[in-house]
Amino acid sequence: MAFAKCGDDLEACQTDIELGRAFQSTLAPTQLPGRASAKCADWPGCSGLGLFGDCCPSGNTMLGCCSASRRLASETMSRKGLTVDDTTLQYCAGRIPQTWPNFQAPLGSLRIFQAWNTAWPEEGREASWKGLAGFARANGVKILVGTPVTCEPAQDEKTWGWTKEFLRLLDPSHVMGLAIGNELELLYDHADQSCIKELWEGKRLWKIFQQRVAEFDEMGFKEIPVTSVFTAAILSGNPFTDVPGQALVNTFLRQALWKYKRRYAFTFNVYPYFDPNLHMNAGSSSDCSEAMARAVCWEGPQCLANAIMVAARHKMQQLTGRSEDLFWIGEIGWSSPRAQALHTDMRSCGAFSSLSTFEKRLDSTRLDSTTRLGQKRQNERRGLE
User: Closest by alpha carbon to 359, among 10, 46, 69?
Assistant: First the structure.
């Protein structure tokens, strides 16, 4: 779920592309007569999602913003951040909230997956970048800047060129890190085998990684961490997955650590929401209360997110022999309404993707989970939620 601030008088605004699609079939935001009558009650679909209060017409039919009066307890928010969805980046990068939605805490860091997408109209990118860079400077925010690695080298080079253009708008104090590639260990499941072989066995990823970092350094970012983002799927290896024809992550990590040493940050996307090992309660086709409890909670070894992060830290130590390597959470979150990408048994459990479960999951982030991960460094850099 991504959020966008639509006005100084709104406490929090929620941007949801699925909600936006629902509005398109009824009443587009641009059709609303103005701020005075822009109420959630006037937008079909709001009440069913538990949204209420005032709405903010965004000027684009894919966006709909509603205030939410929920206030959740916060914990170590300075160590956390927000991932910026593509819709927000494309249409309202300058309207990201200065404070956490639903929390009384300033926003300190952001992650963007890419500076711009080749499928988007190019005329919008400079305005988006200026808005995002201006937001970072005005609020002291650091950005984890992502650049894709795909099976389309020409497009990768184009997006990398755009990434450098965006980076020129920032100074090192506003760059948290450079993330080269995202979840590449999963690419084999839907990409041509020749691409996968070239990427891993042919060392294309490692070559690109070094080239990108070298150019990043030339721009004045030599002291900024670098990373490639993976999922918990890589924990299946020893210590990380290394399967020819699929992904040679362990080999890549050894190379990156050898060359960049402690500058390299381990980054994981952690999503209990999509865990394929979650199933219905025994004898039920719709009750998932037991699995949901494990997916939502933080306290105790049975809690999935906590267990994944502990396992990741142990695997990192197995690889490097150190307990204090830089460890970031690139993404962690929940979805309500149900995500289209949810294909596990939980798809049949209405409570799993309900707004109340979403709120419970969000509220649980008040826990300072770093104290349970064996992390001794108090100044370890923040993760992103």
Answer: 69
Could you give phi then psi for residue 379, rounded to 5 degrees?
-105, 20
What angle separates helix 125-139 from helix 153-167, to the nearest 10 degrees? 40
Residue 375's closest CA among 111, 75, 79, 105? Answer: 79
Distance of alpha carbon 91 from the chain centroid: 18
pLDDT band per the 50, 70, 90 thresholds, residue 103: confident
Alpha-carbon distance of 349 to 287, in angstroms, equals: 6
* Main-chain dihedrals φ then ψ at residue 212, nearest 5 degrees: -65, -45
pLDDT in tens, 153-194: 999 999 999 999 999 999 999 999 999 999 999 999 999 999
Distance of CA 325 to the CA centre of its chain: 21
Q: What is the CA radius of gyration of the chain?
A: 21
How far is CA 179 from each of CA 48, 118, 225, 238, rounded to the nearest angstrom? 37, 18, 9, 24
Q: What is the DSSP letter of 343?
A: -
User: 337: which 2 tokens?
Assistant: 């309404």
Residue range(s) occupied by CATH 3.20.20 in the chain: 75-372
Pick the CATH number of 75-372 from 1.10.287, 3.20.20, 2.60.40, 3.10.620: 3.20.20
Residue 189: CB partners within 8 Å, gap ≥ 6? none
Report strand pairing: 65-67 vs 13-15: antiparallel
Between 379 and 193, where is the model more confident? 193
Residues 58-93: b if buried by 16+ CB within 10 A, e if exposed: beeebbbbbbbeeebebeebebbbbbbbbbbbbbbb
Q: Which residue has the tokens 């695997």?
A: 315
Instruction: Please determine, for residue 235, whether its predicted confidence score (pLDDT) is greater than 70.
Output: yes
Q: pTM of the prediction?
A: 0.80
Residue bearing tokens 């389309």: 152
pLDDT band at 40 (very low <50, low <70, confident <90, very high): low
Contact criterion met (CB below 8 Å) for 180 and 147: yes
The DSSP result for 9-40, as a single string, is T-S-EEE-HHHHHHHHTT--GGGS--GGG-BG
**SS3 call for 111:** strand
Predicted local confidence at residue 39, as pLDDT: 56
What is the distance between the alpha carbons of residues 185 and 68, in angstroms, rounded to a whole number? 37
